[in-house]
Specification:
6-stranded antiparallel beta sheet, alpha+beta, 18% helix, 5-stranded antiparallel beta sheet, 193 residues
Amino acid sequence: MKQFDSVLWFATPVWAGELHVDNEAIKDFIYRLADISQGVSKSNYLGWQSESINEIEEPSVEVLLDQITQQVDLCCEQAALPKLYLQNFWFNINNPGAYNHLHNHPGSLISGVYYIDAFPEQGLFYFERNDDGKYFLPPVAEMNNVNSNCALYTPETGKCFIFPGWLNHSVSPNITDTNRISMSFNFGVPDEN
């Protein structure tokens, strides 16, 4: 009997790669910003998160944003999406014990995170399925991208993860005695107003 063809509908891509920027200069800028800003409390627990930023005049961050924008353009091309525009970005300092709750980014078509100072022992970046499949799937011997309930990635300095804004994600507690530092970002279609 001939096997049926398989087509994956409603795919949820996660793009991952490395960027090469001056992480030390960006880190210095973030610590200066944290010294003068109380920050906000959104998905973060214990750590510091900057307010949402739309544009910035900091050369090291501008270089990073240019590289991220180029990667987002390539992701959109691959997924047959229109050109998207940077909506906002913010910085995160996850000090020891700090983490980010499960959340997504409403209003964003493509979101992501770039790790400015991180290493694997500090914890994991989690993506969780959004389609209620976890209530239907039985235990399996070998997990894959169809039968898994979550996907785990390792934060490391220079790594960037790009994903749909609706994809639920979290970051596990930083279990080391050094800070884990990142920048998160959102891209979307321009406002018609």
